[in-house]
Specification:
Blueprint: E1 3-8, H1 12-23, E2 28-34, H2 38-48, E3 52-54, H3 57-63, E4 68-71, H4 78-87, E5 91-94, H5 102-114, E6 119-121, H6 129-139, E7 146-155, E8 159-160, H7 168-171, H8 175-190, E9 196-204, E10 217-218, E11 231-238, E12 243-249, E13 258-266, E14 269-273, E15 277-282, E16 285-288, H9 299-311, H10 321-340, E17 344-345
Parallel strand pairs: 1-2, 1-4, 2-3, 4-5, 5-6, 7-12, 8-10
Antiparallel strand pairs: 7-13, 9-11, 9-17, 11-12, 13-14, 14-15, 15-16
The structure holds nicotinamide-adenine-dinucleotide (NAD).
Nicotinamide-adenine-dinucleotide binds near residues 11, 162 and 178.
Length: about 350
């Protein structure tokens, strides 16, 4: 049976990630799209031969007989649009971050619990080959007890110059909610979703609101509107004693244009992503147990395949809303700690 898909928000995430993911899947037909900029939606529909364009997404939910909607709009509308879709019985793939904050995320969790449809969030990194293989190593006990994780995603000159990423009222926050959220989610999942107990955070706006920063953006935005952080740091303590350090920025005076370091340390082994490398001590020697010739997949296509399998009851969702709510709680706590200059302890 054909899986009927609608795209809500026909901007860059829809174009670069969702459409290629759907087009890899012969079971799927993208039958409708909607955007508040209806001309943009029309151009999108023409390019991808999508039959129906809706100026009003409510009408798309009511009329297009969708099995899935991809929500690719700015963060401030994720909650409302996702809940409306769920209440109409449409399965939702909502882009990250789940919502503006944990309160909104919890509303979405509850709506998903009430609904006859599924809600998942676009944390595609969990579906990458490297992350999936590393998860197998971890579940086989090859890293032993994981006591430390480092999630680092640094850009030298990468402030998004489109959309609403730089406007807090529309994004909920800056680089933490944009890129930090991905690696916080990924490392939490790899660690087996430990319970966070305390968070210390710091955030800085070092570049984004300066009038003379043309070199540090990817694109142009109104500097006077920039009211979010371009650097965020967090130290998260978990029940059982493990910790994670999270460091993310859109711009910084560093030697790399882009640096992603995901590192896990366990008492039997350690690992880094990307690329996947595994390190251990065996037989009184240091071993590099790095998998070779991994077959790389498109993680967006994988997240869609997984959602469809979950809709059919063949497996559970990999990215569950309750887990994304925890991610959002931690991010809220990083902001709170940054504002109060104190550790935030979860009760
Ligand atoms: N998973 C990833 O790696 C990834 C990558 C990029 C963006 N994203 C996420 O995707 C979302 C969109 O980001 P983007 O880069 O595509 O932004 P964008 O600005 O390119 O696209 C957003 C689109 O939504 C439309 N829109 C805005 N408000 C709307 C509303 N109320 N109703 C209907 N349409 C509306 C805009 O007109 C625009 O076409 C964000 O939440 C972002 O965090 C995720």
């Amino acid at each position: 049976m054909v899986v009927r898909v609608g795209i809500l928000g026909t901007g860059s995430a829809a174009e670069l990630y969702h459409m290629p993911g759907y087009r890899e899947n012969p079971e799927v037909q993208v039958v409708a799209c909607s955007d508040q900029d209806v001309e943009r939606a029309r151009r999108f529909a023409k390019k991808y031969e999508i039959e129906n364009v809706y100026a009003d997404y409510h009408e798309m939910f009511e009329k297009a007989r969708l099995n899935i909607v991809s929500i690719c709009t700015p963060n401030y509308v994720h909650k409302t649009q996702a809940i409306e879709a769920l209440e109409t019985g449409i399965n939702v793939l909502c882009e990250k971050p789940m919502a503006m904050n944990a309160t909104e995320a919890l509303d979405m969790v509850r709506a998903a619990q009430r609904a006859r449809a599924l809600l998942t969030i676009g944390h595609q990194h969990r579906f990458s080959t490297d992350a999936q293989i590393l998860k197998r190593f971890i579940e086989a006990g090859e890293l032993g007890t994981i006591y430390y994780a480092r999630a680092q995603c640094l850009r030298r000159a990468g402030i998004p110059g489109w959309g609403a990423f730089h406007i807090k009222a529309k994004s909920g926050g800056g680089v933490l909610l944009d890129t930090g959220v991905h690696f916080l989610d990924l490392m939490l999942w790899l660690m087996g979703l430990p319970e966070p107990v305390a968070v210390t955070g710091a955030t800085y706006t070092a570049f984004g609101n300066k009038p003379d920063n043309s070199v540090i953006g990817c694109g142009e935005y109104d500097r006077t509107e920039f009211d979010v952080e371009d650097f965020a740091y967090g130290l998260i303590r978990f029940a059982g004693g493990a910790t994670m350090s999270l460091e993310t920025c859109w711009a910084a005076n560093i030697e790399f244009s882009d640096k992603i370091t995901q590192q896990l340390l366990g008492d039997k082994g350690g690992a880094t992503l990307y690329p996947l490398q595994v390190f251990a001590q065996r037989h009184r020697s240091l071993m590099d147990i790095t998998p070779r010739a991994l077959c790389q997949v498109n993680p967006y296509a994988e997240e869609i395949r997984w959602l469809i399998a979950a809709m059919r009851g063949e497996k559970e969702l990999l990215v569950k809303p309750e887990q994304c709510y925890q991610v959002q709680r931690i991010m809220d706590a990083i902001y709170e700690s940054a504002a109060t200059e104190r550790e935030v302890v979860f009760s």
